[in-house]
Input
Amino acid sequence: MAQSGLFGPFVSLLFVLSCWTRISAGATLSLEEKLQQLETTLQATVNQLQEKVVQLEEKVAQVQATNVQLEVQIQQNVPNRIFIFRTSSSVGKAMNLTTGKFTVPRSGTYFFSFTALASFPPSVPEVFCLAYLYWNGVKTGSGGVEEANTAYLQSSPFSVHSTLKLKSGDEIWIQINEMSDETILYNDAGDLLTQFTGWMLDEEIVASL
Output
């Protein structure tokens, strides 16, 4: 639809030129009248193209103004619950710190990354922690860590990464589904060792024109 709208002025111009050619063959108009008619048509076509350019410029400016990014730090890490975050640099207020969910503001391709540092109790035969990335309630990515016979102050990093093509209104969140007893995720505000980040890689501009 966007392409047909853009080329509409050219179609109109070709139609008028065709009519002008046929009229010329009948010699019903003077040369001056024909040139005046052609000038009027060309000006109308230029005006339409200028309007299209303005519309596209406004659309690009709107996309740039609503660039989507998020970076939040974990506040709570209760097993089998969605993460609740304490601070956010989310552009456009798309990240709800209370629910822990990111609501997609604009359709497009997004990249998400969850990185964490798990701390384990000492002298335990087996410890583990597993996180899932959810897309509208469906698991779409996972990452975790598992250790055995842990030592004092032992910790291990893990992460979840995913690139998704999303629609406006989709919901994304991180959730811990499996965690061994006494295992924790570092959540000190100054260390930034456990955080959820993401940004829009590409927006579906054509679909919205």
